[in-house]
C-alpha cells in the first residue's frame, strides 16, 4: 500500500484539480445528456473519466441481469472488443456483489484480480480504482474501473470524484437502457406483427384464389337452372328467388375481385418499401462500400426485379405527349358514364411532353378522372387543366361534386378507406355516382408517386348542404332541393386533385 496516499496535497494544486474536475462533471452532463445511444454514450463517458482521472485506461462494466454477468464493450485501449465474465468474478464482481469500492496500489498482489482477463488482453494492471454504480431505485447497474493512474496511485480525491461522476453517469445510463429496452420491445412487436400479417395475407390470398373457381361454377349452374325453369315452369314465382341468388353471387364475385386487387396493391407496397430500404442502405457508405463485386451484381439484380414488379421494365420509359393521354382517359370516362350527362372540359398546352412509363401516366389519369366522375352528381361537370411551371408539368382534375370532409382527407391515400359510409352507397358499379370502392385507386397513385418522384395533392371543399358522410346527395342536380343549375352545384363544393410530374431528361433511377 502507498503510505503517502492520505498526505494532504498542495492547496493551490488541489484547488486547481477540484475546479477542473467540477468542470468535467458539467461537461459530462452536456456531453451525454444529448444522446441516448448507449454504446456511444458509454464511450464518451469513459473518455472523459480517463482524461480527468489521469488514468491509462477506463472500463465500464454493465450488469446483465438475465445472465448474471458483467460485460463491457467500452474498455479504452482495447477497441470495441466485448469482455464478459461472471457477475462475481474478479475485483469488478466483488464490487458489484458487496457494494464496496476497491483501491489498489499493487493489483497483482490481490488474489481477487482476474488474471484470465489479463492473459487474454495482454494488459498488466498495476494501480486500480473500482467502484459500483446504481440506478435511482438502488439496483446495481454495473462497475467502473480506472486502471494505472499516471504518476502514482489513486487518491481519496479520486474516489470522491469518481463517486460524483458515477452518480451523474448512472442517471444517463439508466435512461439509455430503458430507451433501448423500449425500442427493442417495439421492434419485437413490429416483427411479430409483420409475421402475423404475412401469415394472414397468405391465408386470405389463398381463400380469394380458391373462391374464384367455385363461384364461377355456381354462377354457371344458376344461369342453367334459370333457363330450364323458364322452359318448364309457367309460374314465375321462382324468378324472384333466382334473381336474388344471382345478385348475391355477383356481389361475391366482385368481393373476390376486390380482394385480389387489395393483395396486388399490398404486394406493390411491400416491394416499394423494400426498394426504399435498399436505397437507404446504399446511402450508408460504411456498410454498402464493404460489398464485394459479386454482391453488388446480385444486389442490383434484386433491386431491378423489385422495381420491375412495381412499374414495368425500364425500356417502357419514353417520351409521352400528355394531352392525347388525357383525351383518351376522358373519352373512356364519357363512354362509361354516358347516361349521367357529365360535362368534361380539357384546358392547356397540347404539346406538353413527359419522359415516363406511358402505362403509369394512363393509370394515374384514368384513376383521377374515374374518382372525379364517381363524386360528381349527374348533370355536373369536370375540368382537367394542364400547365407547365418551374420544370414541372401540372395536371389538375377538378370535380364540382360533393367534396371530401376534413376527417376523410387525412386518410384519403391510405387505401381501404371508403369515400362515404358503405351502407349509403348508391351503386357498386364503376363510374356511377357514389360508387365508392375501397380507395385502392388512390392508394396505387400514392405508391406510383413515391416510386416515380411526382407529387400528388388534393384540395377540397365539402358541399355545405351535406356537411357529413351520414347525409346523402341525391346524385342528380335536377333532384337536389338546394341546387337547380350546374353553376349552383359548382359553387357548393368540389375537389381538385393535382399531379406535379417532374420534367426528366432520363428515366428515374431504379424504375
The tally of helices reads 13
Topology order in helix (H) and strand (E) letters: HHEEEHEHEEHHHHEHEEHEEHHEHE
Number of strands: 13
Largest sheet: 6 strands, antiparallel
According to CATH, the fold-level topology of the largest domain is Heat Shock Protein 90
Structural class: alpha+beta
Task: Specify the overall morphology.
Answer: elongated
Count of structural domains: 3
- Low-pLDDT windows of residues: 1-13, 419-427, 505-511
User: Would you state the CATH class of the largest domain?
Assistant: Alpha Beta
What is the radius of gyration computed over CA atoms, rounded to a whole number of angstroms? 36 Å
What is the rounded distance between the termini?
A: 73 Å
pLDDT averaged over residues = 77
> Beta-strand level of the residues, as a percent range?
15-25%
The largest beta-sheet arranges its strands as 3-2-1-6-5-4
The assigned CATH architecture of the largest domain is 2-Layer Sandwich
Helix content: 40-55%
The CATH superfamily of the largest domain turns out to be Histidine kinase-like ATPase, C-terminal domain
